[in-house]
Amino acid sequence: MKKNWLVLINVSLWMLLSLNVFSQSSVYNIVDFGAKADSTTVNTSAINKAIQKCNKDGGGSVIIPAGHFVSGTVMLLSNVELYLSPGATLMGSKDTSDYLLNNDVLMPGEGYNRYGLIYANNAHNVSIAGKGTIDGRGNYFMYNPYQYKYKGGDFDSKFTRQGAEYMKPGTVIEDGPVTYPFRPGLLVTITNCNDVFLTDVTLKDSPQWTVRIGFCDGVKVRGITINNNPLVPNNDGIHCTVSRNITISDCNILAGDDAIIVSGFGTDVHTGNDLQYGNKTGVAENVVVTNCVLSSRSACIRVGYGERPVRNVVFSNLVMYASNRGIGIFAREESSIDHIIFSNIIINNRLHSGHWWGKGEPIHISAVKSKAGGKAGTINDIQFYGINAVSETGIVIQGSPESIITNIGFDHVKLQINRGKYTDSYGGNLDFRPAYPLSAALFKHDIPGVYVQYADQLKFNDFNLSWGDDLPAYFTYGLWADHYKNLSLQNSFLSPAPVNKMLSAVKLSNGTKPVIFNCSTATGIQLLQNTLK
């Protein structure tokens, strides 16, 4: 019996050794390659040497120990885990020349001719993990004191409700965006890769997009924190461009731009070259986002933009707070967006000051053209279940004569619309940027609880709308649908805004086949046929 136990112990030790449990040969500490944690030395060369050695030896973990290590662009290679120990901070250099130069740049300036702090391309089994921090020091690259962007070529204030007073120079802008002379590229860029893992790390103060996953297949993001300066434009949280088989869970994200994005951009944002190594389908698909807390100056969740299809995406168990838009779905450049589910989501958003896209919508869905000669994309089968939203404007669903939005469902949805700080100075407008012409991009419009135009097969069940006090007169109907087909409104509670209580709860125009059943207004009066105006 004793001999048998010795045999079992020897076998167990052999198995552990084969799994490198007791082996240190696959662990590479950047200090052993010359890195210094003095917050001054630029350790780009030392860190890259450790990664190259790890990759050459067959893979393992490159350790960043406790301390503050400054670096330029770090090139992550196959079978390498970049592990940030508790107390470790990898800091982006303040000198833009320390970042890898991209000689094939498509868009000069704005950081596009430089990569950011971490870059992986054409690799497999790459990982960033640990309880440490990656600090892009993006605020350093902004003008100090802050300068704010007042006007842009994507809108003309003459079309807004406020006219020349809309965001005129000298207006107090509390929410940004601020401007900059130059900045490094995206904080973490992972393109054309298979089997990507991001776990537990904290990423902060990104100068641009925080994490870009482009044309990858097989990505797991779990438990990361992104804490950006919300005044900085374009510092998106996690941006998945034409990638597939992705799970994002248990994350906490604060961003100056969109928090989590699934988009169909089919070209590299630096070079304009097509990317197809990791994800050979050329489709953004099979994405699950769950158990996250999100905040953004733009949209907490954005689906769309770009010319490639987006399909089969699920968002669930999310909390959104202090954001401009809650959920945004945008079909442009003839792309298609299909089969998206949103469930069990709390949305708390408001109007923001400054040059941000969006006007405080809890949910925005649009299919419009973005440029002269362009065509809108298509949107089909978007389902919302268990949504609880508090906002300062209504839900918007806007298709086009050439692109009818189809099969949109709302089930167990509550929406409360309140007055906010910027209701008078920014409200009473619809915002479809980027859109063409400018008269259709950002423009004056009355605001119902739900606005629908050019849609087919809309279903509302157990939809409950309520209004706050002291709202301006541009708030109108509970539901306003124009150019619609096959609209179903059942088991719902709707009313016009209190300031316009003589209006009908529902306004329907230029449509066919409405079905309204078991619905009531605030006074308990059943919706009758004469409300269908």
Count the beta strands: 34
CA gyration radius, whole angstroms: 25 Å
Q: State the shape.
A: globular
Describe the main β-sheet briefly: 32 strands, parallel
| Count of helix runs | 3
The helix content is under 10%
Explain what you see.
The protein is mainly β and 533 residues long. The chain is globular. It has helices at 2-18, 44-56, 423-426, and strands spanning 27-29, 60-64, 67-71, 74-75, 80-84, 88-92, 118-121, 124-130, 133-135, 188-191, 194-199, 202-204, 211-214, 217-222, 225-227, 238-241, 244-249, 252-255, 260-264, 284-296, 299-306, 310-323, 325-331, 336-349, 363-367, 378-391, 395-398, 405-417, 429-431, 442-444, 450-467, 479-490, 506-509, 515-517.
